[in-house]
Design a protein that fits this description.
This protein is an alpha/beta fold. Helix content is about 45%, strand content about 10%. It has 15 helices and ten strands. The strands form two sheets. It has a six-stranded parallel β-sheet with strand order 7-6-5-8-9-10, with helices on both faces. A four-stranded parallel β-sheet has the order 1-2-3-4, with helices on one face.
Length: about 375
């Protein structure tokens, strides 16, 4: 293995500068170029030189559109891409839901800008597909993403589970009856302004919490939102109840999960944005009971209702599941243990990485066999 010095996309990014009218027109036309939409492609010559100098027999990129853009063009070296969301998916979801993400559409200028951004994102989508087609294997963390690239003609678009490092065994999930304070539910983890979390938190505040608080009545309960970032105004407007605790960054995320009755996952409530959720793996690793929208299993087929998660389709179903789990310590333990076993079988990094390396070796073997046949 050759470790090369770090490269920085900022070193090849095009600087903004004042321009005359002609230059501005040319700049707009260039806005659809690979270099503008994927700036890391500017590192391509440097990356290729390093690959050739190292005598690499394969290129492996992990969770990085930058690595894909900087290496997809390198001929004669098979490429394995371990990927999360296709690059166009978050902008597409935001553009389809402008009110939620604070995208103005009132004036004709607003709508013209919106249309231009839609065109740019469609171009981003096509470029991403083209780059991925230049790679021998695309291994996706979501079944839906694997199907997306397969539907667009990729010969080896496969599903390979996401991963999380092994976690030290935790104490059993807390008994709500033994908690001195309110029932603690983790309602979100991660950047509060991220695409999935914005959908989740708006749904939480607008649809789920009114039903949940009605069921809990005077029973004390708190919904903890963990992570940096800023809520979108639309999501924030529905989360003003004092029982919603916006905590920000926390020092010990493991302890937060261990002290919670359950973890609520709503990032897949909107069909415009269906993705795998890494935080599920953390909850499973810690044996925390997970309640989630049933759309989550479309991306992660290992999710099973009543085995490793409690799945609801509507806000009423989700509220009922949360109340049921709050009242039933044995149920939470069973779901938490089911999640822990699922994590141990499928998602530990020391399970997924060897599988990935085996698939990379198979890719290299096919490449060698092809070279031998053509010799």
């Amino acid at each position: 293995m050759t470790v090369c010095p770090t490269l920085y996309v900022a070193d090849v990014a095009e600087p903004a500068q004042a321009q005359n009218l002609v230059a501005r027109i040319l700049r707009v036309s260039a806005a659809l170029s690979l270099r503008r939409l994927f700036p890391a492609s500017g590192l391509g010559p440097t990356v290729e030189r390093r690959v050739r100098e190292a005598g690499a027999e394969a290129i492996l990129s992990i969770w990085s559109w930058e690595a894909l853009a900087a290496s997809y063009h390198i001929a004669g070296v098979p490429k394995f891409v371990y990927y999360g969301n296709p690059d166009h998916l978050p902008p597409q979801a935001r553009l389809r839901n402008p009110e939620l993400f604070g995208i103005p559409t009132a004036s004709w200028r607003d709508r013209l800008w919106w249309r231009w951004e839609w065109v740019r994102n469609e171009r981003r989508k096509q470029l991403n597909i083209r780059m991925m087609h230049a790679c021998e294997v695309t291994a996706n963390n979501s079944v839906l993403d694997a199907e997306f690239y397969r539907a667009h003609g990729h010969a080896r678009s496969i599903y390979l589970q996401n991963m999380w490092p092994p976690v030290k065994a935790s104490t059993p999930p807390v008994s709500v009856q033994d908690q001195p304070g309110p029932v603690k539910i983790i309602g979100s983890v991660g950047n509060l302004g991220a695409t999935g979390n914005t959908f989740a938190l708006a749904y939480l505040g607008r649809e789920l919490l009114p039903r949940l608080f009605e069921r809990f009545r005077d029973r004390p309960v708190e919904i903890h939102l963990l992570g940096k970032g800023t809520l979108s105004p639309a999501a924030a407007a529905s989360l003003g109840d004092a029982r919603v605790k916006i905590r920000g960054w926390v020092d010990d995320i493991h302890e937060e999960f261990r002290s919670a009755a359950m973890f609520l996952v709503l990032t897949n409530v909107n069909p415009d944005f269906l993705v795998g959720n890494t935080r599920i793996l953390l909850a499973w690793a810690l044996g925390t009971c997970v309640v989630m929208h049933e759309n989550s299993r479309l991306a992660m087929p290992e999710i099973q209702h009543g085995v490793n998660a409690l799945l609801g389709r509507t806000p009423d179903e989700l509220a009922d599941l949360i109340v049921a789990a709050s009242d039933d310590h044995a149920l939470r333990q069973r779901i938490g243990e089911g999640g822990r076993q699922t994590f141990e079988i499928y998602y530990r990094s020391d399970i997924v990485v060897p599988t990935m390396m085996r698939l990379v070796q198979e890719m290299v073997d096919r490449h060698r066999a092809g070279q031998g046949a053509s010799a």
